[in-house]
Amino acid sequence: MKLQDxxxxxxxxxxxxxxxxxxxxxxxKISRESGVPYSRIYDVLESLVHKGLVRIMPGETKxxxxxxxxxxLELAENRRKELDSTIEEIKSMKKxxxxxxxxxxVLAYGKKNFYTITHELINAQEYTYSIRYISEPxxxxxxxxxxxxxxxxxxxxxxRYDDETRSNVQKWLKSTKExxxxxxxxxxxxxxxxxxxxxISLIKSxxxxxxxxxxxxxxxxxxxxxxxxxxxxxxxxx
Length: 238
Fold this sequence. Notes:
Blueprint: H1 10-22, E1 25-26, H2 27-34, H3 38-50, E2 54-57, E3 63-66, H4 70-99, E4 105-109, H5 111-118, E5 127-132, H6 139-151, E6 154-159, H7 166-176, E7 180-182, E8 188-193, E9 197-202, E10 207-212, H8 214-230, E11 233-234
Parallel strand pairs: 5-6, 6-7
Antiparallel strand pairs: 1-3, 2-3, 4-10, 5-8, 7-11, 8-9, 9-10
């Protein structure tokens, strides 16, 4: 049981699970069977008593019994409500963020930040055009393209196609059943989304940027489509 998700400490979780298993028993046995240090067991049991999960049975030797686990259901329900509330707050923050004024140019250095900055791109509603350098077949990206296809978002990809990238590109082609075209690419990754944003990654310089500017995005779209018409298609291998 993941009782720590309900606000119990590790020791409290171990002690309560031991009591559920053995029923009425002494602190020393609970300590021995649960692995909770004896020096801590009484503090732990007292905390469980305070939370209503354990009852004390008076006698010559003090013993402890677990309360009905239904109490845990109440705790879980309260946690679920708290989590639902937190999720709604996050959604509200996300809407505020999306409606707010974003920086027109975002710049980041390093490969790790490349993956971070890709999450800054808006979700495509009309089209997404890309130029790929490595063409990593990340499951999340492939699923994204499949989703685009289902909702009618136009997707185009151009990529270098050589010994280093052939396997990656073929995985894309087999997974998405999309048309890809070849481009002589010495170190650029590019994404254009909905006449709104352009992401450019300069591979050799190890820098990535997002430009949020509609006129720039429209010009880049025209250049992209011109290249697309002239470029040969990459054939899917059997």
